[in-house]
Amino acid sequence: MVKRSDKVAEEIHKIISELLIKGLKDPRIGFLTITGVKVTADLRQATVYFTVHGDDAAKKNSEAGLNSAKGFIRKEIGQALKLRFTPEVTFKYDTSLDYGQHIESILKEIGATDDGDNS
C-alpha cells in the first residue's frame, strides 16, 4: 500500500527536477541532481536530498542557491499540487554517494593488495 506522503514526495521530486532543467536563475546552483524527497505524514515538511558534481565550494554554493530560491520553489510546488498546506521545503546534501565511493575505494585498495593466493 502506497502512502499519500510517498505520492506527494514523488510529485515534489518531479516539480523540482523540472525547475532545475528549465533553469533557476541563480548562478550559484551548479550541476546538481535531486536524489530523493521525504515528506512527513502530515504533509507539512518536505526534505529534498541533492548531490552536486564538483568540490566542496560547489556544494556550498549550490546549497546556498537552493536555499535562496526556497520561496519560489515552494510557490511552484503549491501551484502544481493544490494541497491545503504547501509543505515547507528543506534542502540537505546527500552524503550516501560520497560514502559509497569511499567504500568502493577501500574495496579496490583491498583487491589491489590481494595477491590471489587463497590458501
TrEMBL record:
Superkingdom, natural source: Bacteria
InterPro entries: RbfA, Ribosome-bd_factorA_CS
Annotated compartments: Cytoplasm
Record key words, sorted: Cytoplasm, Ribosome biogenesis
NCBIfam families in alphabetical order: PRK13815.1, rbfA
Subunit structure: Monomer. Binds 30S ribosomal subunits, but not 50S ribosomal subunits or 70S ribosomes.
HAMAP family: RbfA (MF_00003)
PANTHER family: RIBOSOME-BINDING FACTOR A, CHLOROPLASTIC-RELATED
Family that this chain belongs to: Belongs to the RbfA family.
Function in brief: One of several proteins that assist in the late maturation steps of the functional core of the 30S ribosomal subunit. Associates with free 30S ribosomal subunits (but not with 30S subunits that are part of 70S ribosomes or polysomes). Required for efficient processing of 16S rRNA. May interact with the 5'-terminal helix region of 16S rRNA.
The protein, known as: Ribosome-binding factor A
Gene source species: Geomonas diazotrophica
